[in-house]
Amino acid sequence: MTSVSTEPRNTDDAASTGAQTSAPTGGSAAQRERRRRILDATISLAAEGGFDAVQMRAVAEQAEVALGTLYRYFPSKIHLLVSALAREFTKDVDRSAIRATPGETAHERIMYVLNRRTRALQKQPKLTEALVRAFMFADQSVTGEIHEVGTSLTTVIARAMHGTPDHGEVTEEEAAIIRIISDVWLSALISWVTGRMDEKDVEKSIDVAVRLLLR
Amino acid sequence: MTSVSTEPRNTDDAASTGAQTSAPTGGSAAQRERRRRILDATISLAAEGGFDAVQMRAVAEQAEVALGTLYRYFPSKIHLLVSALAREFTKDVDRSAIRATPGETAHERIMYVLNRRTRALQKQPKLTEALVRAFMFADQSVTGEIHEVGTSLTTVIARAMHGTPDHGEVTEEEAAIIRIISDVWLSALISWVTGRMDEKDVEKSIDVAVRLLLR
DNA sequence: CCCAAGAGTGAAACACGTTCCTTCGTGAGT
DNA sequence: ACTCACGAAGGAACGTGTTTCACTCTTGGG
Fold it and tell me: Is 0.85 surpassed by the pTM of this model?
């Protein structure tokens, strides 16, 4: 958390070395395996004890890698958590591609996917707290991972809007609406995580936003 | 940052001891003076070097109080920064009460106040980074201060919406719209602070949101 | 089969938020 | 003026994120 602006190592050019931060696919099998273990450990610790429980030493131990190795893979705790979030979100996107979203209207379908996701997050409050905190704290060096998260959320909402798994055309206005909905969702999630809103409030605030935006 | 949920000391009942966290007014003159010095030091350090530069030891030194005293007044760095943010925002609200907001339409007036505030923040990027980060990281124990910030923002937008300094009636729907605008503004600010949006993007995203919501 | 280079290891060290303890100064009540 | 309670001072100490470094292991090319 300390040096946010400095950030020399790991130029991130994907081409450079190997299984770096934003390269979930590159590297040897052993490296992908290590990366997976690290992210698993992260999720597991976060699910148990939230942001504070994701301690780098603990992650390293549980993933059975050395602390130095952990830092080679993820240059900071924030990168680690945001990457974990990205991985989970990506899973969701894959699932949403399988079949059409239920619901008669765009409003219903959007609420369906967002509520489903919201409830999933709320079932693991500690995990969500950790991930949202990390997301909020992320600085420029995490842009890649964050963009990944944003994209998958946009994709899911766009699909729900149209009601079909294919992406089709998204107009400028639709894109703007989706961004706003995402913003509201994120804000609500923050409020929930920090104890300023309860589950009902979250759902309601998104519902209102969607209604106002789709009219 | 470490113990977020535990938090024994300082039961915050305002009645208890004195110049505590959420009591800008109570306490002896010397205590109010200390509090002021602490917040001044916070703003000053934040303006120079951002979140990371607001180090508790440095704040204590610059405010000429002991570290222990600093912690007596503000139980964590987050409380400290959010309190500072609240103080600055409150000043703004006071100013906005003075005269009617310029602009023909609600859209214009809202953009006017939000852009003005946005630009003010952007003139002090480091300070803004520090304050936004703190705001994001705040947990339940900071609810009071955060609510204060939220309220003043709402007030300012409501005034701009109606174009008059008096608060008048705010309908349910208007309140909902204001909340959404605040959410978008906050998200944009986060994106800006974390280097994922530039000044233009911030303005544009708010403009689009206001347009979509006020049509 | 051997070697150089890169990856991984482990431990120590550092930085900074936070806690804790001990001592001092001061103002209110007597 | 005396004492007592309490806020403040000052600083040591602790926890955890991050860095560094010397060393070992793995691996792919000759």
Answer: no
